[in-house]
Amino acid sequence: MGHSAEQPIDNFQASLQDSFPIGTKGIWAEHKDNGRYSLIEEEISLPTAVILQSAVDHNIHWMQAFADKHQVKLCPHGKTSMTPYLFKKQLEQGAWGMTIATPAQAEIAALTGAKRIIMANQLVGKANMAEVIRLQSSFDVKFYCSVDSALNVQQLSAFFAERGQQVNVFIELGVDGGRCGVRGIEAATDLARLIHQLPGTALAGVEVYEGVISGDDTETRVRQFIAETVEFARSLKDQGLIDTKEAIVTGAGSAWYDVVAETFSQYTDLLPVIRPGCYLTHDTGIYEVAQKKVMARAKKNHGIACHLDGDLKNALEVWACVVSTPEPGKALIGMGKRDASYDAGLPIAERGFRNGIPIDVTGLSATAVMDQHTFVDVPADCDLLVGDVIAFSTSHPCLTFDKWRYIALADDNYIVEHWLPTQF
Amino acid sequence: MGHSAEQPIDNFQASLQDSFPIGTKGIWAEHKDNGRYSLIEEEISLPTAVILQSAVDHNIHWMQAFADKHQVKLCPHGKTSMTPYLFKKQLEQGAWGMTIATPAQAEIAALTGAKRIIMANQLVGKANMAEVIRLQSSFDVKFYCSVDSALNVQQLSAFFAERGQQVNVFIELGVDGGRCGVRGIEAATDLARLIHQLPGTALAGVEVYEGVISGDDTETRVRQFIAETVEFARSLKDQGLIDTKEAIVTGAGSAWYDVVAETFSQYTDLLPVIRPGCYLTHDTGIYEVAQKKVMARAKKNHGIACHLDGDLKNALEVWACVVSTPEPGKALIGMGKRDASYDAGLPIAERGFRNGIPIDVTGLSATAVMDQHTFVDVPADCDLLVGDVIAFSTSHPCLTFDKWRYIALADDNYIVEHWLPTQF
Q1: Which of A249, B120, B169, B196 could bond B241 through an S-S bridge, CB–CB 3.0 to 4.6 Å?
Q2: Which of A276, A296, A321 delimits the end of a domain?
Q3: Range of the domain at B406
């Protein structure tokens, strides 16, 4: 294994005076002595992904305040951004730990300073287990992963016990028709006994992902599922099956974190942990829709989300140029599947500029996307020209982040001094 | 600008003895002295993207032979892989140059040794133009880009002439309802006169992308469009509007390269260049379908494709583990939108292994994909277990490549000694 686990991350951000990998898209600019590059003035090669600093800072504060007021721990899902600079900000603002999806992501969380890491997924495969062995040996970190089968528990226990280690596991409870997770409390209790009994696994609590629940009356079903989850965690504790100091109960993506936190906060005998990820940059698509529902529920229930500073804001954009206007009513943008997410809606034009001056982009509508192009319908009264610069928001954020090795960090005037390395 | 344009790429491949960036997925393995890591024996962390060396070598030869026999130049579209190791192989086997989509990609092509670079897209935006200025100043390279509007031609000429340079441009011809490109020969001829007349632009020929033609009787329409394209290029030459030594005519993605090459090869007064990209690794989805049509046309027309060594082979896979079997008939794979393309069909199970022994994966069918998971329907007679390793092919290749910073290069026994860095 070529890279050193012990070397902490120190390149949280880079300026154009630093050395970039060759050919990295979105980081070319002609040198300026002041190191300040204007997106509006076209001083940075496009397309480029942009983090709006004030919005991302606001969101980090907002969700931490939400968790603090509910007396639940915030363990943000880092898979969204995989951006050490943002992990560090989340931890500095009070995050209890970082959630991740894979051992490779866990390493980034550890190197960024997380002391508690929840891998909200099953740890499967010898090389992946070996990576966690190394993580636990190299870092002062508590690692947790999910299990939902006796076979995986046996595999984990054998692997970790043989190497003189234990791995902390959560039982993942699932729902019929859902994703991973044990179906039913009886099977889950049997699994708890096995974990408790085997030498290489330590039962640390219960994990769920309520985001797979959909259909009619989702809110009621989510509340019910979370209540069952908490009851199950308490029963494990009562039966003496929890092997760690604290019995953790953990759930919540960025759509139902309010419902999960409300339910969790009714119990003081467990350590409740929520794991939203997409709140970090939010979006103008599926998470905007979900957050509107959060705010509507808060208004109805006098929930805490109403009493915080404002609301989540979109903090992630892709800036790109109009490259062609080949037919009336049609424009092509120099941005495609290689640059922006397209799995939950196409990019949305937020702002436009021509030679540094704002232009109206109202009514522009993306209709299709190819590897390096986006097709846009242009209203008759819009005089879009080749070379116009447009800032697009996207849906959902995870799949915009993973298209970029460096993301420009912009102030409120769209001036960029630093680029944030991602670690996908 | 932080990176040095003059430093050639020398890290075409990396072994696990080399230093990898931290947290890079798919490259963890416990050290082996012989440096040979078995995918089947789970010696590499999964998921990981895998290039099958013999298949990719075969495909590179195959397409070069196809182009050579048609006496057309092959300028492979590098955007597919953005993998310098593979660019180098394509150039070594006889490619005339590299095609790319953006100035950042052009830099990689130049650093890999390409002497001719076709940017089969419009060059728009001051920072992007500045990057090409730098490229032309730093490398012994001929750069060409496409134009389809007078405004872009004026922008380019002003920018390049002010800096004492010229940029070679192709007029892109488009089709009604298509993507970029001038609509109609009259407008295209006007544009040619403008290019010829302005100081910063040099007209080098005509570029098309016939891949946007679809619907009824596509083949006839493609043939007609390519014939018109060639006639237009000849008329530009006849009118003395071509500013470069040779008049180039260029087209062809990986679906219609046979039709394009056949038409091109009927003319000897132009330099014909085809630009397929996805043939490199091929796939088992949309390009397999397209290639079957190529072979069917060749059979019917006694085409050259029938007289080459075999056919294109899939050379790109993502290997991943079964992480959960939560309900009868359902399995979850530890591979998702972060790891494999999903825009033109979901991943397809090709082979399976359990503890190093082959298992049958016939009938497995991916039904949905999330960021880090793939849902698979499992036939009743298939006993898939947590921990089983499955090799998946994908569709289409470009969007699997761009998920990875390193791709494992495997021999026919699925042994990996080197990882190939990508440069997205």
Answers
A1: B196
A2: A276
A3: 10-53+313-421
- Given the DSSP bridges, would you call strands B357-359 and A365-369 parallel, antiparallel or unpaired? unpaired
The predicted-structure confidence for B364-414, as pLDDT tens digits, reads as follows 999 999 999 999 999 998 889 999 999 999 999 999 999 999 999 999 999
- A330 plus A243 within the same structural domain: no
Distance CA B351, CA A271 (A): 43
Reported as a single tens digit per residue, the pLDDT across A175-205 is 999 999 999 999 999 999 999 999 999 999 9
Determine, for residues A372 and B2 on separate chains, whether the beta-carbon distance falls below 8 Å: no
Same domain, B217 and B318: no
| A391 three-class SS | strand
Residues 128 through 187 of chain A touching chain B, CB cutoff 8 Å: 128, 130-131, 148-149, 151-152, 155, 174, 176-183
Among the partner-chain residues A174, A176, A385, the one whose CB lies closest to the CB of B151 is: A385
Phi-psi region of B355 (alpha: psi -120 to 50; beta: other; left: phi over 0): left
Torsion of CA B32, B37, B43, B46, to 10 degrees: 140
Q: What is the mean pLDDT of residues A207-212?
A: 95
User: Does A98 fall in a domain?
Assistant: no
| Position A21 pLDDT exceeds 80 | no
Residue A380 included in any domain = yes
Q: Residue B258: is its pLDDT beyond 90? A: yes
Specify whether A331 is located in the same domain as A228: no
Whether B159 and B140 have beta carbons less than 8 Å apart is answered as no
User: Given the structure tokens 């091109």, which residue do they identify?
Assistant: B264
pLDDT in tens, B50-82: 999 999 999 999 999 999 999 999 999 999 999
CB atoms A127 and B29 under 8 Å? yes
Check which CATH number belongs to the domain holding B38 and give it. Answer: 2.40.37.20
Are B348 and B369 a contacting pair, CB within 8 Å?
no
Best residue in A4, A12, A22 for a mutation probing chain B (most B CBs within 10 Å):
A22
Pairwise CB contact (< 8 Å): A45 & B131: yes
> Exposure pattern of A307-323 as b/e (b: 16+ CB <10 Å)?
ebeebbbbbbbbbbbbb
What average pLDDT does this structure show over B327-333? 97
- DSSP assignment of A266-304 equals T-SSSEEEE---GGGT--SSHHHHHHHHHHHHHHHHT-G
Residues B187 and B331 in one domain: no
Residue B358 lies in a domain: yes
Residue holding tokens 């009336």? A328
State the best of A33, A126, A383 to mutate against chain B, taking most chain B CBs within 10 Å: A126
Q: At which of A276, A293, A325 does a domain end?
A: A276
Residues A400-405 have a mean pLDDT of 96
Number of domains in chain B: 2
pTM of the model as a whole: 0.96
Contact B319, B334 (CB under 8 A): no
C-beta separation of A332 from A376 below 8 A: yes
Q: What is the pLDDT of residue A3?
A: 45
pLDDT of A327 reads: 96
Question: For the segment B12-47, what is each residue's pLDDT rounded down to a tens digit?
Answer: 788 777 777 777 898 888 889 999 999 999 999 999
Nearest to A22 among B111, B370, B403 (CB): B111
Residue A229 lies in a domain: yes
* Predicted confidence band of residue A267 (pLDDT cuts 50, 70, 90): confident
Residue at A351: amino acid letter: R
Are residue B140 and residue B264 in the same domain, yes or no? yes
Residue A381: burial class (beta carbons within 10 Å; 0-12, 13-18, 19+): exposed
Give the β-pairing of A201-207 and A167-172.
parallel
> pLDDT grade, residue A4 (50/70/90)?
very low
